[in-house]
TrEMBL record:
Residues 1-121 form the VOC domain. Residues 48-68 are annotated as: Disordered. This is Catechol 2,3-dioxygenase-like lactoylglutathione lyase family enzyme. It holds the Pfam family Glyoxalase. The keyword Lyase applies. InterPro entries: Glyas_Bleomycin-R_OHBP_Dase, Glyas_Fos-R_dOase_dom, VOC_core. GO terms for molecular function: dioxygenase activity; lyase activity. Keywords: Dioxygenase, Lyase, Oxidoreductase.
């Protein structure tokens, strides 16, 4: 089974275009408020609030919404080059390059504000 990650987004077409730019393929199915993509060894499922089971409120009434800090990590060969390329395409940068012991990272946002980490190993 392929590992999967689900994101809550506001706009399915905008989110699909963003993740295609990051190397994901739109594999369908496309249903109202849902899309499925594959890339980087990961199945990515996108839901809008209220769509399907994943878009339904929690037991306490809390409704799914985009954002937060949990994120997928995509390894890139040159983080600075990717930041320039994606910045030129209008992608929002949440954190610019941060260098750590394991490598360098930067966090960008999809159109709904969900974080995506770009990572270049040391």
């Amino acid at each position: 089974m392929r590992p999967g990650f689900r994101c809550i987004v506001d706009d399915i077409p905008a989110a699909v275009a963003f993740y295609r730019e990051l190397g994901f393929d739109d594999v369908g199915p496309r249903a109202g408020g849902f899309a499925m993509l594959d890339g980087h060894g990961l199945r990515l499922m996108l839901n809008t609030p209220g769509a399907g089971g994943a878009g339904q409120p929690a037991d306490d009434g809390t409704r799914p919404s985009p954002g937060g800090w949990g994120r997928i990590q995509l390894e890139v060969s040159d983080i600075d080059q990717e930041l320039r390329r994606l910045g030129g395409a209008g992608v929002r940068v949440r954190t610019s390059r941060i260098d750590g012991r394991g490598g360098s990272q930067a966090v960008i946002e999809d159109p709904a504000g969900n974080p995506v980490e770009l990572f270049t190993p040391a």
